[in-house]
# Entry
Amino acid sequence: MTKKQKKMLIRILVSGALLIVLHFLPEDFPHLEGVAEDSVLQRLPRMLLYLIPYGMIGYDILRKAFKGILNRQMFDENFLMAVATVGALVIGLLKTGDFDEAVAVMLFYQIGELFQSYAVGKSRKNISELMDIRPDFARVESENGQEEVDPEEVPVGSVIVVRPGERIPLDGVVEEGDSSLNTSALTGESVPRDVHPGDEVVSGCVNMNGLLRIRTTKEFGESTVSKILELVENASSLKSRSENFISRFARIYTPAVVFGALALAVLPPVIRSLFLGLSPEWSDWIYRALTFLVISCPCALVISIPLTFFAGIGGAGKAGILVKGSVWLEKLSQTGTVVFDKTGTLTMGQFEVTAVHHSPLSEEELLEFAALAESSSSHPIAVSIRNACKTPPDLSRIGKVEEISGSGVIVQIGGRQVAAGNAKLMAKLGVPFMECHQTGTIVHMAIDGVYAGHIVISDREKPEAKEAIAALKDAGIRRTVMLTGDRDAVAKEVAEDLGLDQVYSDLLPEDKVALLEELLKSKHPNEVLAFVGDGINDAPVLTRADLGIAMGAMGSDAAIEAADIVLMDDNPLKIAKAIRISRKCMRIVRQNIIFALAVKAVCLILGALGIANMWLAVFADVGVMILAVLNAIRALFTKEV
Amino acid sequence: MKKTYKIEVDCANCADKMECAAAKVAGVESVTVNFMTQKMIVSFKDGSEPSDVMKEVVKACKKVEDDCEIYL
# Structure
């Protein structure tokens, strides 16, 4: 609690205690001798006693209300509360002798304000702590030992030392040391990532066990951690439609209720006395009008909606999903079509040996020959074959290497002629070969002119991809589409395996934008089309879609900039999770809007009919706000979503 | 030009009122008050001097919400 809040709490407790004491005083205390019973003068001393707790709890409201009048801010809630309570006191003095109400209304109003400021402050702190990934220092290594400096002052190419338990302050490459990194602050995943010399590391991760020496590759301002902080701090500045609706509504609501109150105070008594020949009952109608004023404060509505979005964005952030503004959270909840980029999004984006067929040799032997044959190439296919070899091949066995452009290589290995390449190469050598029924890149092998089988290399689907598509379908996504620059056969197989509805293949990057335009035209107008890419070469598509989602953004600035929602790791399951989080958030927003409006409407009606008194009105006001705030905070909990 | 200022304001409705008041100040292109992060993001019209404009913004905001604070 802040000092201001503590002071308020004391004021509430003391004036509340005073109010209770006064309430239980005998009704005719203090009694004035010689003054007529049931007169204003008789009631005056009792009111003066009540003014002590009233002044104590409400002096700041009265002061602000007075200033508001000077500044012509008539619909300020301070003004409304002041009019309502002063009015109640006057009615008490003139007629009823009941002063409890005025003090109680002020008291409850202040309790509500205190609760609101406490709850909001608390959740703001929680959420900021959640995203507190700012490193305090960088330990730079120089000739005169190690020195702790501000991360902003570290130039690119410096060597920094990160001890176990410390946060990596800047993006860089590991020079020395092996360790596991805890990336949970960035990705929401608790599985640690192992790093070894030569690996790139991202700022914001926590070094868990080994000492790391890192050569920085970026300045602090360009580092992942700064990019994320910037994004998070500017999030929720883009207001959603719901938020705009509520602020517009509040601007109309308060004046409308105030005029309603005015009409209620004046019209019925006038009509009663002029046309119906009844007594006007001024004090009764004025009291009803004052009840209106108490209900007219829009704070419950105005606070709970942005708070819900803020909590939702915070909760998503905890799960490794960065949302750039509440408007995007709202859009995400309306997603009906999800368009995927294939490589890097649904597939690993890394080529891997997936099968070895028709080989008379063992799989290991054939792979070893292939690895030796491809040992001089840096092509992704060659790299994948080398990676598939369990033992590093003995490079000294390689003799003459003959590269045949566009076909493959013929290499002498330990006195044997090994040919590795595509069907063209086999045809050229006159070796009969087997076609492969599997999709992917096929490397045929021939040893000493005899066919030795083929190796299938393909981009593997991510293990979670299938489940991710199913989860999207479960979440009510109508259409899933895949765009890829890959060959048709490969694309179709992936799409079928994953259960995607549509697939477009053989696309050049510019085709993707054109195709997306078409998809945008064909979708339902109320529905949002989200594009999911890895952000590497699909920035134009990310920007063009209604909603751009970039995956695996750890370290990719382009993705963070182009996308509206950024998934920190590259797990496609997070897409469905993000949608579920946004839906939960929107559910809470709707609940709060409907709940607050309904309670206010009921109270206004009951107040106008004279059924609801001021007690009920202030309970409705404060109670609704407390419930709405508590409900809003639920958006923060995203683990089970 | 866009600038972000730290603010202090107690209630969400007041933040909204500040936003309305600040938007009417000459030289302000658009303004967003973010109650949750306690920030005011002002974009200024071309050719206006932010420090002068902000003085007016503070004045306008103080008028609608006495308790608010804008840290220039």
